[in-house]
Amino acid sequence: MADAGAIPAEGLRAFVARALEMQGVPEADAATVAGLMVEADIYGYGTHGVFRLRQYLARLKGGGCNPAPKVSVVQDTVATAVIDGDDGLGHLAMATARDLAIEKARAAGIGWVGVRRGNHAGPLALYVRPQAEAGMLGMAAAVGSANHVPPYGGTDLLLGTNPIAFSAPAEGPDPFVFDMATTVAAMGKIKTLLQEGQPMPEGWMVGRDGLPLTDPGKRSEGFLLPIGGPKGFGLSVAIGLMAGVLNGAAFGSDVVDFTSDTTSATNTGQFVAALDPKAFGMGDGFARQAARVFAEMRASEPLPGHDPVRLPGDGKTAAAEARRRDGLTLTPGLRRDLNALASDYGLEPPFPGEAAG
After folding, report:
1. Which residues of 170-206 are buried (b: 16+ CB within 10 A; e: fewer)?
2. Where is this region: Disordered (predicted)?
3. pTM of this prediction?
């Protein structure tokens, strides 16, 4: 049953696209980006979907993001490529990279496509799920769009949340889709808590005194913590090398904070990969074997007080279908923010009758 406060996905896409067009984004590009942003919310990645519209509009307005980029392939081999995003909205370069990686994997068994001069592109799951739906394995990673993490044992902010995602086909309704930050929490979750006036749990951030930081409004006064201590730090550095340095993109002190600086080009680095099981003699056998192993894992007796075992991606397909059918229920803070943006740009509010702010 549809939620009375839900907004149809198509209506939300149209609003986002129109807002982007108001900042000079061509109609076709605006439709592509809006579609991916709403798709993020449809699959449950609310901190990286329409929630980011205000940030994107600010960077377009400030000149740090090119509204009409010429996304191009600047290096190309049978199995690899590098894409130049021309400082445009990151979704455009990453969607191009994803599609090219899949194309190369069909021909060569593997496709690895790097991106430079990109921007924030939403959740990496958007760029690995299609590989699994095509019967392939997918991987993607990115240098975070701001530095919130010091090197392990240090105090200088030289690393971002540097996310990584994997996908794989499996027989059944849900492919394996695993998307994570290399920090205990993504900065988007903290910004969501701030928008809703809620505190952070202990363990997400610490202040420069080393004590827990729980006020999201003071996030600039502390550090995000890496997953697994030095292990998360090492993984974050490895991602920075593959997504940043390898592509001629920003890493370390070269990273621009895309929220506080709306005028500078970020040169965000990312990569997308696709791997075809057929190149290993597996074909559809991979999905069958994966499903068998996953079934064993789900059948494992839960620990006392724990829910049954789930695999990353479980339930996403059904939840997405429900949201496509019934609409999207956004948080009160986000609904107010979208109405405020509508007022700023002279657009019809997506949530008429509700307050803006």
Report:
1. beeebbbbbbbbbbbbbbbbbbbbbbeeeebeeebbe
2. 301-331
3. 0.93
